[in-house]
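>> received
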Amino acid sequence: MWAAAAVVALAAVVLLARWARELEPIQDFLLQYPGHSELPANAPVGIPAWLGWQHFLNAFFLVLIIRSGWQVRTTARPKAYWTRKNTGLLKTKAKPAKISLELWFHLSMDVLWLLNGAVFVVLLFATGAWMRIVPTSWDIVPNALSAGLQYASLSWPVENGWVNYNALQVLAYFAVVFIAAPLAAISGARMSPAWPKGNAALDKAYPMEVARKIHFPVMLFFTGFVIMHVALVLCTGALANLNHMFAARQDAGWLGFGIFAASVVVMVGACFLARPVFLRPIAGTMGKISK
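>> returned
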């Protein structure tokens, strides 16, 4: 029933958008704002190889974070628990918390994702690539509305991601990198065992309930973004888009598709292996496994 309602709603949106595009004021608006903002004159052109690797690693960790996060949320009786070894650089006065193996895996993927994200942000600003995903002009807003209307009418905006993303893409990528990712990090940190225990002032300033109300919707946002992102990549020139994203090439060959297919196999395999029987030996090298 919900699927049928969604199809009807989407059909209504498409019909409404197509009708709107026939109106003269809307046509004038689309001419004035074609859907993309001009980049600064010194903005880099093209997509470097490091961005392709970063794209794969971000996707790999994000898929595992979403999967493990859902397991943490839905697993009522964990099959195994993990306790950190209280030795070495991470030695603390307080006894390490005992957490489920699912939560250990989720937190481990979080750390790797954040480290990879830090490298990504450094490279983004070091190479000037930040200008491609950070709005630099206020006309990004009407251009984003224009791009959204074009998408809704199924008459796609003109794509030239090698040079410049459309305004809606810029806002989406900016939101992912500079809003959603930090929100996921700060809310996850509050919910993790690493949060200082027994600090009433700190707990009052940032209650656990607030972190939970942030963390789950952010996960839903990332899930929706991944689904929409993959769908549009495949529907708006799959070979060219995948070459941009994975092969750092501006052509419509099959190299990017091959790398993308291999990355999907790797991610599916990682999801299959992310279960207690395979996680126990790895987690056991970093702590004690118990039932």
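>> The CA atoms of residues 3 and 144 lie 28 Å apart.
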